[in-house]
Amino acid sequence: MSLGVASANEVQKREKKPEVSGGRINQSDMARSDGLWERARKVLPGGSTRAAVWFSPHPPYIVKGEGAWITDVDGHRYLDLANNLGVLIHGHAHPDVVRVVQEQVALGSCFAAPTPHEVALAELLQERVPAFERIRFINTGSEAVGLALKAAHAFTGRSRIVKLEGVYHGSNDFAEVSDYSTPENWGNEPASVAAVPATPQGVLDAVVAIAANDLAIADRVLTTHAAEIAAVIVDPVPPRAGMKPLERFFLEGLRTLTRRLGMLLIFDEVIAVRFGYHGAQGRFGGEPDLTVLGKIIGGGYPVGAVAGRADVKETTAKDVASSGTFTANPITMRAGLASMQLLTPAAFAELDALGERLRSALTQFFDEQRLPMQVSRTGSVFSFYFHRREVRDYRSYFKLPEELKRTEAFFRAMLARGVFIASTGTVFLSTVIGPGEERIFIDACKSSLLEIYTAA
Ligand SMILES: Cc1ncc(COP(=O)(O)O)c(C=O)c1O
Questions:
Q1: Is residue 146 within 8 Å of residue 294, measured between CB atoms?
Q2: Which tens digit of pLDDT belongs to each residue from 231-250?
Q3: Coil, strand, or helix at residue 157?
Q4: Residue 119 C-alpha to ligand 1 middle, in angstroms?
Q5: CA–CA distance from 191 to each of 54, 181, 183, 210, 268 (Å)?
């Protein structure tokens, strides 16, 4: 099978094992994955259900995950450092999670009634982040963003929202505005650019984009439209603005402004909650009114949640109903509880130390080899950038065509060596990565980079 080239847009968008083995994947031996792809394209639009994990001509189809490793239908094993884009913080099929899920499957998967498990998971989250005075679960991060925005509308009586240009908050009509702005359409200052053709003008009018870490623009926009703005939503560690925390002055400035102008400040910690025992807000500050959660809190099962001020949650609970059929299902709640219980303060510290060891080894290699590269890291997540400019917002993050090409070539070179990272060049670490896996990863990075820079 020859690996075709993904478009720029595709790239942009989209057991503790007994013995450690990496090694080259024979890409001409992907017959089963090829066959599945042939079938898939006849039943799934574009051949795939999930844009974020698709790459051309098609990804390997996966049949098994154990600890830090996954296996495809053709029997190739990969070291998995994508971990379903940040969900699997304990890798695949952690025994504590498997145990409670199996127990619950036998007890019944869902009921038209609450279960004790949603109370237990909510209590754990509240104990760790006292600002989570009330918590409501839902099935995905995208739905949770929608729920938080609706709560903001209902609480403030205002209908517009402010978001950071280029920052992803899931598939939600409003939150998607300006997600994929390009130099051709973004203008002098952040603008409300449609992410989907024929987005209703009403959606675009309801969203105002601002730049990360630019308090002057935020001040002007919030003050000018104060009477209409319900909330400002930010990811406190936006991957598309540098994979590092928003600067403290910016967060504090937003907090002061929103409080003064009667707006809510919403943090999207769907990924960022993994940056600390007390969440991203416990580590980097910001005091949001509401926080959107997802990914790790479901232990590998579908989840989202909105947590925050009791007055906001209680007064809007009736108007902003959320009654999804699978909401707070006991399998997710138990898997989430088991997974979060494993995340002790020591586990966070070890993940941080692992991230720093890898960042430092890679940076040393870039310097020795004089590669125009950097690794931008917060905690257990990092991104490879094929340049050395400072990234502090979406515009400085935005990959030039040459950088996109290198990102893609690196992703494919890593895959060929049996190391699976996100196609955007992002690595999500897990607690089951041992010294053997560290070594495999670093060796694969070095040989992949030498290969792509030699080929260039
Ligand atoms: C910051 C952020 N918000 C929201 C979402 C949407 O979450 P979900 O994919 O569960 O709908 C994501 C997903 O990657 C995300 O990274």
A1: no
A2: 999 999 999 999 999 999 99
A3: coil
A4: 23
A5: 28, 8, 11, 8, 21
Q: What distance in angstroms lies between residue 456's CA and the mean position of ligand 1's atoms? A: 34
Of the residues 285, 319, 342, the one at which a domain ends = 342
Amino acid code (one letter) for 315:
T
Q: For residue 427, what are the β-bridge partners?
A: 382
Tell me whether residue 384 is exposed, middle or buried, using C-beta atoms within 10 angstroms of its C-beta: 0 to 12, 13 to 18, 19 or more.
Answer: buried
- Statement: the pTM of the whole predicted model exceeds 0.85: yes
| Residue 268 near ligand 1, beta carbon < 6 Å | yes
- Which residues, 6 or more positions from 204, have their beta carbon under 8 angstroms from its beta carbon? 177, 192, 194
269 lines ligand 1 (CB under 6 A): no
**Is there an atom of ligand 1 within 6 Å of 140 CB?**
yes
Q: What's the pLDDT at 127? A: 98
3-state helix, strand, coil in the chain (%, to 5): 45, 15, 40
4 pLDDT above the threshold of 70 = no
Distance 371 CA to ligand 1 centre (A): 32
Q: Which residues have a Cβ under 8 Å from the Cβ of 180 and sit 6 or more positions away?
A: 9, 12, 13, 166, 193, 195
Instruction: Give the pLDDT confidence score for residue 16 in this predicted structure.
Output: 33
Average pLDDT of the chain, as a whole number: 93
Cα of 171 vs its chain's centroid, Å? 12
261 and 167, same domain (yes or no): yes
More confident residue, 313 or 129: 129
Backbone angles phi, psi at 204, to 5 degrees: -65, -40
Mean pLDDT in residue range 439-456: 95
Neighbours of 48 (CB within 10 A): 17
Q: Which residues of 255-266 are buried (b: 16+ CB within 10 A; e: fewer)?
A: bebbeeeebbbb
* Separation of alpha carbons 46 and 392, rounded Å: 34
Query: In sequence order, what are the residues at sequence separation of 6 or more whose Cβ sits closer than 8 angstroms to the Cβ of residue 95?
Result: none
Q: Is 84 left (phi over 0), alpha (psi -120 to 50) or beta?
A: left
Domain of residue 118, residue span: 95-342
User: Does residue 240 line the site of ligand 1, with CB under 6 A?
Assistant: no
Report the CATH number that the domain containing residue 299 is assigned in CATH. Answer: 3.40.640.10
Nearest ligand 1 atom to the CA of 303 is 10
Ligand 1 pocket residue status of 168, Cβ below 6 Å? yes
- Structure confidence at residue 23 (pLDDT): 62
Please state the domain count of the chain. Answer: 2
CA of 268 to the centre of ligand 1 (A): 9
Q: Which of 289, 319, 342 is the last residue of a domain?
A: 342
134: Cβ contacts below 8 Å, ≥ 6 apart = 307, 308, 309, 310, 313, 314
Are residues 214 and 243 both part of a single domain? yes
